[in-house]
Amino acid sequence: MTYIEKTSLDTKALKEKILQLKKERNAVILAHNYQIGDVQDIADFTGDSLELARKAANLDADVIVFCGVDFMAETAAILSPEKIVLLPAADANCPMAEMITAGELRVLKERFPDAGVVCYVNTSAEVKAESDICCTSSNAVKVVESLDAQQVIFVPDRNLGSYVARFTDKQIMPWEGFCFVHDRITPDDVITARERHPEAEVLVHPECRAEVVDLADYVYSTSGMINHVCRREKKEFIIGTEVGIIHRMEKDCPDKQCYPLSENAICITMKKTDLQKVYNSLESLTPIVTVPEDVADKARLAIQRMLDIK
């Protein structure tokens, strides 16, 4: 699947200009695995939410250009308040992150005062500030198990919460949020994909529905999928997550054949960033993402607790 980018310059020239501006600004470009291929190609680091959060916390740069969605740039701004954090696509808002507010979470905390609060990193800074600890899809089980509380409020992804509940004796109380890309993948998609590619292993993301997870061979975060594909002797894989990851797999594991579980698994928000927006952002040093200090201080505690879990 190819995404055509409309730029004022040809792609090669634009990439060269971005790399030159990056040096002048002492900038680092971070890109999520779901970004379009050309954006992944000019990034210094490409990864999943946890990998990029760790990078953001330890970068020696004046400027961080975050090619992803809003909550990712907010996390970078929280971890690196001394740096300029740019989100090239200012309107790249994560729909799932908008499904829970800090006010709604405070109501839940009042109803269940003894419960621990785990928020998926796919949340706003304000929600993180109301949480005990953050998690990503790759470490959610470890995060839940790290809490002393037996009841755990888990926001906002009901599917990830359901997946975590399989591996813990704690009572998981999930919010009713979801990722629309993963939630709309169906068991029929899995059955059809297996019929088309009978020799392929099926890998799905834990943001998928439980009935889809049940049909998969393996369940991984995006980086977990990439690692699995690269290290396995098998040659064919069906990938149950956003289609942008396949570009990364083709680069990292060129001897493997990866098929999207669903051709419709496209996050339009992730596709809002293109090379022209990256260039414009570096040139103007806008749009800058900032988080109020009082919110950032509280949110930083929840994020750091997550990063401290190995």
Task: Please describe what this structure looks like.
The protein is α/β, with parallel strands linked by helices and 310 residues long. It folds into 3 domains: 11-93 and 270-284, Rossmann fold, CATH 3.40.50; 97-179 and 293-307, Rossmann fold (3-Layer(aba) Sandwich), CATH 3.40.50.10800; 185-260, Rossmann fold (3-Layer(aba) Sandwich), CATH 3.40.50.10800. Helix content is 42%, strand content 16%. The protein contains 15 helices and 12 strands. The chain has helices at 11-25, 37-42, 49-57, 70-79, 102-111, 125-129, 140-146, 158-165, 180-183, 187-196, 210-213, 222-231, 245-252, 275-284, 293-307; strands spanning 27-32, 45-47, 63-67, 84-86, 116-120, 133-135, 151-155, 171-174, 201-204, 218-219, 236-240, 257-260. It has a 4-stranded parallel sheet, with helices on both faces. Strands 6-5-7-8 form a 4-stranded parallel sheet, with helices on both faces. β1, α2 and β2 form a beta-alpha-beta unit. The chain starts with 10 loop residues before the first helix and ends with a helix. Mean pLDDT is 95; it is low at 1-8.
Please give a quick description of this structure:
It is an enzyme of class 2 (transferase). This protein is of the alpha/beta class. It is 42% helix and 16% strand.
Q: In the residues, how many domains can be counted?
A: 3
Please give the number of β-strands.
12
State the CATH topology of the largest domain. Answer: Rossmann fold
Average pLDDT over all residues: 95
Strand order of the largest sheet: 2-1-3-4
Q: What fraction, in percent, of the residue positions are helical?
A: 40-55%
**What's the CATH first level of the largest domain?**
Alpha Beta
Give the termini separation: 36 Å
Radius of gyration: 19 Å
How many individual helices? 15
H/E element order: HEHEHEHEHEHEHEHEHHEHEHEHEHH
Beta-strand level of the residues, as a percent range?
Answer: 15-25%
CATH superfamily of the largest domain: NadA-like
| CATH architecture descriptor name of the largest domain | 3-Layer(aba) Sandwich
Specify the biggest β-sheet.
Answer: 4 strands, parallel
Give the class from helix and strand content and strand pairing. alpha/beta
Poorly predicted ranges: 1-8
